Amino acid sequence: MRIPQTPPKLNDLMAELKPPGRLVELFSLMREVKTQRHYLHWDKLRRYTPPPGVSHREWWMVQKLSRMDALKPIPLKDTAQRPFQFVVTELVLEELHQIDLGAGGLVSIPEPITNPQTRDRYLVSSLMEEAITSSQLEGAVTTREVAKEMIRSGRKPRDNSEQMILNNYVTMQRIRALKASALSPERVFQIHRLVTEKTLDDPTAAGRFRRADEERVVGDDFGEVYHTPPPAEELTERMAAMCAFANGETPGHFVHPAVRAIILHFWLAYDHPFVDGNGRTARALFYWAMLHSGYWLFEFISISNILRKAPVKYSRSFLYTETDDNDLTYFIIAQTQVIRRAVRELHTYIERKTADLKDVESHMRALDLFNHRQVEIIRNALKHPGQRYTFASHQQSHNVVYQTARTDLLDLGERGVLEKRKKGKQMVFVAPADLSARLLKLEKESGV
User: Fold this and answer.
1) C-beta of residue 441 within 8 angstroms of C-beta of residue 448
2) Backbone angles phi, psi at 272, to 5 degrees
3) Segment 151-176 mean pLDDT
4) What's the CA gap between 200 and 194, in Å, rounded?
5) Is 242 within 8 Å of 271 (Cβ atoms)?
6) How many CB atoms neighbour CB 133 within 10 A?
7) How far, in Å, CA of 163 to CA of 165, rounded?
8) 256/329 Cα distance (integer angstroms)
9) Which stretch of DSSP H or E encloses residue 90?
10) Chain Cα centroid distance, residue 358
11) Which helix (H) or strand (E) holds 225?
12) Which of 92, 168, 226, 409 sees the fewest Cβ atoms within 10 Å?
């Protein structure tokens, strides 16, 4: 990835102004320029055609001057002790409004999520999705099918990639349990230990700051350095400041809860306090902050799935911030758009799954004979002949106790819906190829 070009310095641009009244003239010319809404970085703006009678450098100067009065500082500082700052643009306001509607209240929330009978299935599915894609962002190599089979069956990870995914899954479950608690350095260490268990070259690096002899830079495989984090000796103080910000103790001005969560994500990634696992820990803290602030739908949403589809855009938003006077607005805009898209995708996914289930139900009256968990297995089995189910996988998929999972599957086996087999000491239930015919037979025998 190419490092974006650093913008011209404002002092240099002001010194270039001729004649003296040119600044007033520029503001008049720029008043109606629509690109201001999109908060363009210099690296992008310089590639656009400037307004008539305005040079690129003049265009950028007016943009910078227009933003300065609105920028608000936060306690995060760079390595030169300059504060990071942000502005809530019109575009961000629109995104935040939609996030509030779609993820914080009950407006347009899909019924399967509010229904106690079905919500656990969607919760488990979303936790697995976030665990897998967050790990893939950090280099984990495996397929969704294999990863989900591992989590559902409860088998041990076979390699480092699977261990990363399992760690993320366990972490996301823990985040749900911690959502009402305040954030502390000890809590962050705990999350980092969960994220990195059995994946570090040095196991002692889990749950502690990187040391001075473990200084890290963020770069690529070709030696390009994108970011140099603060020195190790500053990390204790910086972590304390981060937790105070996360808990709403700072700054003195209002910060929208979703913006606070986004900044927390950036803060941990910027400080890079650990030897490894910083990205996964940063995204975990984002989820904690959203759930802590009442955005309960985020138990069901995966942002990493969106980030994985555009990793360069994700990374570039970090670089735009660092190269333009610590202006966090670029990262905030990018992340609010990611959140909005993740919310929309959840709604679409649930609508599709609900439609699938209704389609099966409309053709199979025999489904009235089964509970909602068994119906979900039947729906899945109709689409995947030969699919195998175990007590452990059913327990994990529906977040139920072992006895409930056992009862569900044994009942399906006894009724002939699934074929019951032995695999070593384990009992396995297999979806038969003639399942539709078996259901029709059940329907006739039961008179439903």
Assistant:
1) no
2) 45, 55
3) 92
4) 12
5) yes
6) 23
7) 5
8) 13
9) helix 90-99
10) 30
11) strand 225-227
12) 226
CA atoms within 13 Å, Cβ hemisphere of 80: 5
The one-letter amino acid at 34? K
Measured CA distances, 395 to 165, 392, 414, 424 (Å): 19, 5, 19, 20
Element (H, E) at 218: strand 218-219
- Decide: helix, strand or coil at residue 68: helix
Helices (H), 247-390: 257-271, 278-292, 304-309, 311-323, 329-363, 372-383
Q: What CA–CA distance (Å, rounded) separates 214 from 211?
A: 5
Q: Give the C-alpha separation, 66 to 47, whole Å.
A: 20
Q: What is the largest CA-CA distance in the chain?
A: 93
For each of the domains in the chain, give its residue range(s) and CATH number, in order of start: 10-69 (no CATH), 74-348 (1.10.3290.10), 385-446 (1.10.10.10)
Structure tokens at 365: 């009256």
Residue 107 pLDDT: 43
Residues making up the chain, counted from first to last: 448
Which residue has tokens 């059940």?
442
Q: Are 382 and 362 in contact (CB under 8 A)?
A: no
User: The tokens 């139920």 sit on which residue?
Assistant: 400
Q: Which of 317, 306, 266 is nearest to 133 (CA)?
A: 306
Would you say residue 337 has pLDDT above 90?
A: yes
Helix (H) or strand (E) holding 168: helix 160-178
Q: Using alpha carbons only, give the angle 428, 429, 433 rounded to the nearest 5 degrees.
A: 135
pLDDT in tens, 357-373: 665 555 556 677 889 89
Alpha-helical regions (H) of 179-273? 185-196, 235-246, 257-271
Mean pLDDT calculated for residue range 94-111: 71
SS3 of residue 275 by DSSP = coil
| 125: helix, strand or coil | helix
Report the predicted TM-score, pTM, of the whole model to 2 decimal places: 0.80
Q: Among 16-20, 245-249, 313-317, name the one with the lowest average pLDDT.
A: 16-20
Whether 162 and 198 have beta carbons less than 8 Å apart is answered as: no
> Could you tell me which of 72, 71, 70 has the C-alpha nearest to residue 253?
72
Q: Which residue type does 155 have?
A: R
Q: Which residue has the tokens 């939609």?
A: 98
